[in-house]
Design a protein that fits this description.
Blueprint: H1 4-11, H2 15-23, H3 30-43, H4 49-56, E1 61-66, H5 72-88, E2 91-96, H6 101-112, E3 118-121, E4 141-144, E5 155-158, H7 160-173, E6 179-182, H8 189-204, E7 214-215, H9 221-232, E8 240-243, H10 246-258, E9 268-270, E10 287-289, H11 292-307, E11 316-319, E12 322-324, H12 334-345
Parallel strand pairs: 1-2, 1-3, 3-4, 4-5, 5-11, 6-7, 6-8, 8-9
Antiparallel strand pairs: 10-12
Helix pairs in contact: 1-2, 1-3, 5-11, 7-8, 9-10
């Protein structure tokens, strides 16, 4: 069987560097780490990973708590996490929690019992108590996407309020004044912040906020379909619909098309996330683009820094967004615009 000395000779490094790469890969440069791992593969060296983990005092496992793996945006976040974790020498342990605290608690125990080193939480819930703080006063956790305030851990988020305001302003610039909003899950910080951004834009445009234009949702295709059905039954249909995520928007588009409406000639639809399906919807969906993979990579990087004692505070990292305008949004329908002008004149 090949030994660690053969790996070192093949890679052109010291035995200590090989050992460090296997035990604490974050302390080795990416170039050296790659050479060592290529040498491991070339020689067929099989390190005793249990012994390595025992000596380092780390499991090199990261638990990721995901409210639902069925959400396309979260799936992209996880891809970014896996890539970053592999580069840092960590493995991802994925938990599909369905937003249930009891499931989260079970996986949190893996950190408490040293089966995992830290945790990334993708919903606004802290599963730890104060006893898990490290010497710097931080929890072994990063809260990403749907974040909490005043929790002693790094957070990675988007300025959801500003993004929702930008999208609402885009619809207003097209002449729409009756803009419906299909919300996300009740109680979600994302729902709250995106609603606030929507209201900010209306207020700035001196348009009265109308709660009858708000429709419940839960970030699923079905909720978009059902909200669109309710709009079709309304006495006065909105001219544009802003959905708090793309899946909801695609569900709404499908229902409006079933009813014979043309998008955007009869009604404009906008989403949020820029999932892969958005560009291939019929018509392609106007949306807010947020770099999901960057969320995942940043969350892992921040957690590794916490685990290595490099982070002495709880930073809040804001990921940038872009407004992506596609064919699903257009000017307010002429007949409805004329009716609105008539009402103003009267």
């Amino acid at each position: 069987m090949p030994n660690i000395r053969e790996v070192a000779d093949h890679a052109g490094v010291s035995v200590a560097t090989v050992s460090r790469t296997l035990q604490q890969p974050e302390r080795v440069s990416p170039k050296t780490r790659q050479r060592v791992m290529e040498a491991v593969a070339a020689t067929g060296y099989k390190p005793n990973l249990m012994a390595v983990k025992f000596r380092s005092g780390k499991s090199h496992n990261i638990v990721v708590l995901v409210p639902t793996v069925a959400n396309v945006f979260f799936a992209r976040v996880i891809i970014g996490m896996q890539e970053a974790a592999a580069e840092q020498g960590y493995a991802i342990l994925l938990a599909n929690t369905m937003g249930r605290s009891d499931i989260e608690d079970d996986y949190t125990k893996m950190v408490q019992t040293a089966q995992a080193d830290g945790l990334i939480q993708l919903r606004a819930h802290n599963p730890f108590d104060i006893s898990m703080r490290n010497a710097n006063g931080l929890l072994p956790m990063v809260n990403a996407c749907e974040v909490l305030d005043n929790v002693p851990c790094p957070t990675v988020t988007l300025d959801n309020r500003a993004a929702a305001r930008a999208m609402t302003e885009h619809l207003l610039s097209l002449g729409h004044t009756r803009i419906a909003l299909i919300k996300g899950p009740q109680g979600s910080p994302l729902t709250r912040e995106r609603l606030a951004g929507y209201r900010d834009a209306l207020s700035e445009a001196n348009i009265q906020y109308d709660e009858s234009l708000l429709f419940p949702g839960d970030f699923t295709l079905r909720s978009g379909f059902e909200a669109a059905t309710s709009m079709l039954c309304a006495e006065e249909r909105p001219t544009a619909v802003f959905c708090e995520n793309d899946e909801t928007a695609i569900g709404a588009m499908q229902r409006f098309k079933q009813a014979g409406l043309s998008i955007p000639d009869d009604i404009s639809i906008a989403g949020f996330d820029d999932i892969d399906f958005a560009a291939y919807a019929d018509p392609p969906l106007t949306t807010i683009s947020q770099p999901a993979e960057e969320f995942g990579r940043t969350a892992v990087s921040q957690l590794v820094d916490v685990l290595n004692g490099k982070t002495r505070r709880a930073p809040k990292i804001i990921i940038p967004f872009d407004l992506v305008v596609r064919e699903s949004t257009g000017p307010v329908p002429v007949t409805q615009q004329q009716n609105a002008l008539k009402e103003i004149a009267e």
